[in-house]
């Protein structure tokens, strides 16, 4: 889904400039005839949050008293793409897109999530943060079949969590996660999975600070398919 929006990048550079170019793990870097050629090679990391060991106090609002976390409503879907595009405008692959294409990508990613591409939405854990009657952030939790485990409740996945750039670093993402964890515990879930792009350092750091850890055993799609009898 998100991988579909990575595009090749070509930059006119000298050989010296090419070697000084900061590199993103999501791309393969090559040099030819005075140009740097960047080919998409996105890789994802996965982490797991033990909900039953979650010790941080649950928050029903961010540190800013003007921000309120509430359940996602049907009408919110029309506003989410613009917020999504703004939140990820400096993160690949969205940073390389034009403003119009970035919004189209946001609509596509959220549309697929809403349609169940990653499994059904866990409605009670899908939340938005509101500030001055405008959306400031959102978290969408799904139940992907490929992450299913043997117990009855499965393994929910934090498919998207994002905050508008003007309200970042005010605890809104943490408040959304806290509220989602509280909802998942009420539903009987024991763990929450999440996926992030390798090279997105801010996302990786947020996951570790939030309490996510690498799974003890790597998740193998082949093994999951075998266990499922596929």
Share of residues in strands: 15-25%
Question: What coarse outline follows from CA principal-axis ratios?
Answer: globular
Discrete helix count: 6
Main sheet summary: 6 strands, mixed
Structural class of the secondary elements?
A: alpha+beta
Mean pLDDT: 81
Q: In angstroms, what separates the terminal alpha carbons?
A: 22 Å
Provide the succession of SSEs: EHEEEEHHEEEHEHH
Q: pLDDT below 50 for ≥5 consecutive residues: which ranges?
A: 148-152, 219-230
The number of E-state strands comes to 9
Q: What is the CATH C level class of the largest domain, in words?
A: Alpha Beta
In CATH terms, what is the architecture of the largest domain?
3-Layer(aba) Sandwich
Query: What percentage of residues falls in helices of 4 or more residues?
Result: 25-40%
Provide the gyration radius in Å.
19 Å
According to CATH, what is the topology of the largest domain? Aminopeptidase
